[in-house]
Amino acid sequence: MTRSRDFAQVDVFTSVPYQGNPVAVVLDADGMTDEEMAAFARWTNLSETTFVLPARETGADYRLRIFTTRGELPFAGHPTLGSAHAWLEAGGRQWGVDIVQECEVGLVRIRRDGSRLAFAAPPLRRSGPVDEVTSGHVAAALGLDLSDLRDLAWVDNGPGWLGVLLADGDTVRRVTPDYSVMGEHDLKLGVVGLWDAESAQGKAGIAAEVRAFIPGEGAPEDPVTGSLNAGLAQWLVPLGVLPGTYVAGQGWALQRDGRVHVEQDGADIWVGGSAVTCIRGTVEA
Predict the structure, then answer these.
(1) Using one digit for the tens of pLDDT, what is the confidence trace for 23-53?
(2) Which residue, of 61, 136, 190, 236, has the greatest Cβ tally within 10 A?
(3) How far does CA 134 lie from the centroid of its chain?
(4) Distance of alpha carbon 193 from alpha carbon 242, whole angstroms
């Protein structure tokens, strides 16, 4: 039996509606089956749909389940921030200093950073170098030569990301992906390039350009991606490629204007951004 449930659709990594990445949030999803959640996520046809449930683990404020149109994810960044935003707007109150979200990767801390929310990047499930054969597949999938790939590494915190460092932000914007190659080799690629301080983006305070390619997930290029930016920071900040505090831009190719704020604080990498609710009401689910 379905019933009315509070619902919000939140645009994440933007303070301007319809310029970021939307997530559908079903609040008070207690009692929904796995099949009902999956069906609802397919119906929204967004990159992710989330379901807020009572916490099961001590110390958590709520439990979050995250679904794409193909299945469940153990973690994702913009759904985490968008769901926390919706939960707070619906009257949610955390027990401690930080909001604590329970999901399949464990407990994820979320803090208020002025007008923004930020999550502490969870540990990578897979990290390290990429083998030569896979590197060749990556180059082919991005329409580039192997020599164009400055560095590669696994930066998987749940969705399966493989990170690719390119020469600069312009190179990132010029990438023409071949989704058939990505699909054939089950690749989810995140590309990043730094902007020169004298570029228009550099003068605007944007240090890096990011794109995320996710064939088979409904929308083959993700507009703005928290989990990928978290993994890229965990890879490139310790190497000194990216500074400890920076802003990444994402979404240009999709006519979006996302901003991802990254800050290293001790051993933690915090990934944050603004969020704005675009739809608020109830759904039958």
Answers:
(1) 999 999 999 999 999 999 999 999 999 999 9
(2) 190
(3) 23
(4) 10
